[in-house]
């Protein structure tokens, strides 16, 4: 893990499952060539969310073929097995869902004891009060702006309270004087990145199909890198 990478104010992290799944090694090279430094690894179990697009063995093979930072989002019913596998795979950061973990504080301690950045993810309707006693231990908090498993549902949009939740989380972090990174995931658009990146209310933006065009991913990623640089130079 390159610690200097995580010190930057803004990162745009292409979602691995949005890329061409039959050519992931080549797609990771496009991310690197664009100058982006991390990639978002969604691990789903088919239960927490009704899909299972990416296998752990694929992640382990890709880790050997790219220098990108792997920031992982564990969307599963039972986190421990998948967390262990991702630690072995060389993930730089792992966030797991607070709604499915029986011992959140313990899991954060466990991940960090392995030298990996740790954090939690919240579904749209999960209140921020769930973070009251653990925020200080979180290297990152991921806010889902759409409901998990509904990304392919036509017309599914970001929840109307997303902006309020982002603002309130930023204030919680600011009041406590923490360096916790805020990750936004779910229908993230260039406008979202400009709005919340420029305001400093979010730090990592998961770029999916709303940002990366399948017909020309290289150009899309170049534009995202330009936007990232613009925010980091503010």
TrEMBL record:
Pfam families: Ribul_P_3_epim. The lineage of its organism: Bacteria, Bacillati, Bacillota, Clostridia, Lachnospirales. SUPFAM superfamilies: Ribulose-phoshate binding barrel. PANTHER family: RIBULOSE-5-PHOSPHATE-3-EPIMERASE. Homodimer. It comes from the Bacteria. GO terms for molecular function: metal ion binding; racemase and epimerase activity, acting on carbohydrates and derivatives. The keyword Hydrolase does not apply. Its cofactor is Mn(2+); Zn(2+); Fe(2+). InterPro entries: Aldolase_TIM (IPR013785), Ribul_P_3_epim-like (IPR000056), RibuloseP-bd_barrel (IPR011060). This is Ribulose-phosphate 3-epimerase.
């Amino acid at each position: 893990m390159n610690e200097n990478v995580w010190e930057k104010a803004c990162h745009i992290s292409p979602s691995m499952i949005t890329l061409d799944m039959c050519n992931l090694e080549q797609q990771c090279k496009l991310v690197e060539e664009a100058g982006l430094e991390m990639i978002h690894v969604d691990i789903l179990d088919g239960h927490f969310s009704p899909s299972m697009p990416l296998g752990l063995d694929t992640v382990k093979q890709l880790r050997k073929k790219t220098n990108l930072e792997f920031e992982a989002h564990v969307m599963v019913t039972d986190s421990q097995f998948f967390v262990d596998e991702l630690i072995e795979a060389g993930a730089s950061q792992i966030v797991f869902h607070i709604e499915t973990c029986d011992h959140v504080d313990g899991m954060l301690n466990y991940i960090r004891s392995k030298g990996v950045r740790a954090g939690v993810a919240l579904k749209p309707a999960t209140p921020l009060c769930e973070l009251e006693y653990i925020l200080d231990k979180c290297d990152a908090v991921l806010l889902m702006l759409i409901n998990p498993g509904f990304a392919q549902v036509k017309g599914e949009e970001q929840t109307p309270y997303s902006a309020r939740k982002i603002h309130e989380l930023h204030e919680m972090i600011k009041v406590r004087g923490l360096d916790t990174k805020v990750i936004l995931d779910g229908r993230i658009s260039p406008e979202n990145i400009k709005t919340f990146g420029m305001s400093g209310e979010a730090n990592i933006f998961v770029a999916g199909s709303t940002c990366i065009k399948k017909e020309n991913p290289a150009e899309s990623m170049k534009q995202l890198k330009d936007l990232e640089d613009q925010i980091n130079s503010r």
